[in-house]
Write a structure and sequence with these properties.
heterodimer; A: alpha/beta; D-Maltodextrin-Binding Protein, domain 2; 5-stranded mixed β-sheet; 9 helices; 21% strand; B: MetI-like fold; 79% helix
């Protein structure tokens, strides 16, 4: 009996040790929706590249984490995080109170605002001008939230799509009057199509993008925050920002 | 968290919040399915007949082969050989803008085109894609049904002096229809389910409603289980209708 207990205990310890060893060396899976140029998109060689990807790679390097970026559709990205299919998400996710209830966010890594895209000849100046018009957004995005708050969440004038390129195609083809989305993406897509212009409504609040982890995953969150702080401190953050947005990086709040 | 406990694991409150969207989605799904069943059956009949067109003497013989049989075969091959999802996207983002475009539509342009696209764009594309696809499958059902009727039936009818259309209408099709009902019912059910694919182009049907809720709350059980039950109820209804039809038209078989 005594021997058996001893064997069991040592076996248990061994499994525990192996488990933690495994956890430390395990490659972390990063979920990102690669339809979000310039934040994350697929290059012709099937690689996922973009601002978000550069940021997470730099952060992981500082934090000593092994990562692998996996293209995850936006509509299922939080489910993938919940299921454990991905360990963290960096996909231009705006930090907001509703999401904070279910997930944990790192410090901000990008300052964003909502931006409206319309056809060149459109008279729209603000969000309010879009009342009664058809508005295209990405399902569950901050643009969706904004439109839902302003016009009602079951309003048939809000047209929701899977990804930003589809919303923009719909706008170009006059299927909708306007598109609302994060400024970085909308501005990039609008300059791709010469019949579009962007409209900046000053009433849109400042928002921040954060890296998302499962609620309560403090160990990973702390590592990511430390890595992010290091990336900001040594100037590589400013470099990455400049590479993708051709502008100086703004000063971000620490929390 | 309180709310979560309050409603147990299934938060019916978020479905209630979006009830209007689900209701509209249900109506749209039914409407699209009914229209596509009717149009698809008519189209399938036409294509099925075209595939069987035959004549003994030139030039009708060549006409049947090159103007009817070949195009019909290519049509069926294309629509059965490519994914429905791809067909929907192709029609909505490529074919429809070619014909209906505010700038330079081949069919309709200007303000009328804009209005049409914004109010019925996704509906038209979805119905068109689903009809064309269903037509291809249904044409094969018609072909099989017609071919399954003994040649002697048509020959006897023709020798009695009935014209080809009247032979079809009075002799062959009524017998064939009986045999075609089960596969036609099958097809109607898959049509109903396939209509969910149209949500990708922003049509407010059941799957769109579920996706909207999933996007807003990052919760998946509630919306998708809800629409699963709704689809299930609808397919049960369809199956019941087909069974009734079979009983009605099958009476001649049980002598």
């Amino acid at each position: 009996m005594n021997i058996l207990t001893r064997i069991m205990t040592s076996l248990g310890l061994f499994i525990l040790a192996a488990g933690s060893l495994h956890a430390q060396n395990r490659e972390l899976v990063v979920g990102s929706s690669a339809t979000y140029r310039p934040f994350a998109y697929e290059s012709p060689s099937k690689e996922i590249v973009g601002y978000d990807v550069d940021i997470i790679k730099a952060v992981a390097q500082k934090a000593g984490l092994q990562i692998k970026v996996v293209n995850t559709p936006w509509t299922g990205i939080f489910a993938a995080l919940n299921n454990g299919d991905v360990d963290l998400v960096i996909s231009g996710v705006t930090i907001n109170d509703k999401r904070k209830q279910s997930y944990d966010f790192t410090a901000p890594y990008f300052e964003a605002r909502q931006l409206i895209a319309v056809q060149k000849d459109s008279p729209v100046k603000t969000l309010k001008d879009l009342a009664g018009k058809k508005v295209g957004v990405v399902t569950g995005s901050t643009g969706d939230d904004t439109a839902s708050r302003e016009f009602g969440k079951t309003n048939p004038d809000i047209r929701r799509f899977e990804s930003t390129p589809v919303v923009i195609s719909e706008l170009v083809n006059s299927g909708v009057d306007a598109a609302i989305g994060d400024n970085g993406v909308i501005a990039f897509r609008a300059q791709e199509h010469k019949q579009l212009k962007t409209v900046n409504d000053p009433s849109f609040p400042k928002e921040y993008f954060g890296i998302v982890v499962k609620q309560g995953n403090k160990a990973l969150l702390d590592k990511l925050n430390a890595g992010l702080a290091a990336v900001k401190a040594d100037g590589s953050y400013a470099q990455i920002y400049k590479k993708w947005f051709q502008a100086e990086a703004p000063v971000l709040p620490a929390q | 968290m309180d709310q979560l406990l309050w409603f147990g694991w299934f938060r019916a409150d978020i479905i209630a919040e979006y009830a209007a969207l689900f209701w509209r989605g249900l109506q749209m799904t039914i409407l699209v399915t009914l229209i596509c069943i009717v149009q698809g059956t008519l189209l399938g009949l036409a294509i099925g007949m075209a595939r069987l067109a035959e004549a003994r003497h030139a030039p009708a013989r060549q006409l049947c082969q090159y103007a009817l049989r070949w195009p019909a075969t290519v049509y069926v091959s294309f629509f059965r050989g490519t994914p429905l999802f791809v067909q929907i996207l192709l029609i909505h983002f490529a074919v429809l803008p070619l014909f209906i475009n505010p700038a330079d539509g081949l069919l309709i342009s200007g303000e009328a085109a804009r209005n049409l696209k914004q109010n019925y764009g996704a509906f038209m594309s979805g119905v068109a894609a689903l009809t064309l696809n269903a037509g291809a499958y249904i044409s094969e059902i018609f072909r099989a049904g017609i071919q399954s009727i003994d040649r002697g039936q048509a020959e006897a009818s023709r020798s009695l002096g009935l014209s080809f259309p009247r032979t079809m209408y009075h002799i062959v099709l009524p017998q064939a229809f009986r045999r075609m009902l089960p596969p036609l019912g099958n097809n109607a059910i898959s049509l109903l389910k396939d209509s969910s694919l149209i949500s990708a182009i922003g049509l407010t049907e059941l799957a769109y409603a579920a996706r909207t809720v999933a996007g807003a709350y990052s919760r998946y059980w509630e919306p998708y289980l809800t629409i699963s039950l709704m689809y299930w109820a609808l397919t049960l209804g369809l199956a019941y209708a087909v069974k009734k039809l079979e009983a009605r038209y099958g009476r001649g078989d049980s002598r």
